[in-house]
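Lab notes, practical 5.
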Amino acid sequence: MKVSNENIKKARDLLDELETLEGAMEVMKNYDAKVFALFWTGHNDNTKRTREVRVQVSQEMCSKLMDEVQDRIFEIRKELEQL
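Output from the prediction step:
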């Protein structure tokens, strides 16, 4: 069975993303978890300084994010099965 380098790279990328998303789910499922949106720019009004702003998201938005993460985990597992 020949496995292309392209499929190996894709599988590694998917596994990395899967690990990150599963870690995020573990954190979000904790009763005391706080979820933040992070906004970042490398071009802060041409001052050549990065800027980062962190805002806590509502519980409703957190639930939506958890649904999105779960959906993506499902998609990744499906993609990995097809490789």
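Observations recorded by the TA: The CA atoms of residues 25 and 66 lie 7 Å apart. The chain has two helices and two strands.
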